[in-house]
Amino acid sequence: xxxxxxxxxxxxxxxxxxxxxxxxxxxxxxxxxxxxxxxxxxxxxxxxxxxxxxxxxxxxxxxxxxxxxxxxxxxxxxxxxxxxxxxxxxxxxxxxxxxxxxxxxxxxxxxxxxxxxxxxxxxxxx
Length: 126
Known about the structure:
Helix content is about 0%, strand content about 40%. The chain is mainly β. The protein has one domain (about 5-100): CATH 2.40.50.140. The strands form two sheets. A six-stranded mixed beta sheet has the order 1-6-7-4-3-2, with no helix packed on it. Strands 5-8 form a two-stranded antiparallel ribbon.
């Protein structure tokens, strides 16, 4: 399966829905990339510009995104999608180089990553 770049300029508003949390294995250990860097997962909502449709995606980053608050608009740098299939299941994982807050964007309350439960146990992503 190959990585597919996503043109974020065509997506419309992107907001943080779930603050960054460690991406974990089924055993509860934090996942790491090939170089050993810790992976984090952030839930984002994407409102398509031509309608009322909103999609929610989980985006993995190397390192913890800083300064994100739930409900606030964010900027996503170098977003990629990768389709996967494993043991009869299929899905898409998303990765980005960075997720940063858009200055001046209002949002809801911030969640502490340490207080949040583990997420991101989908198969097919390292």
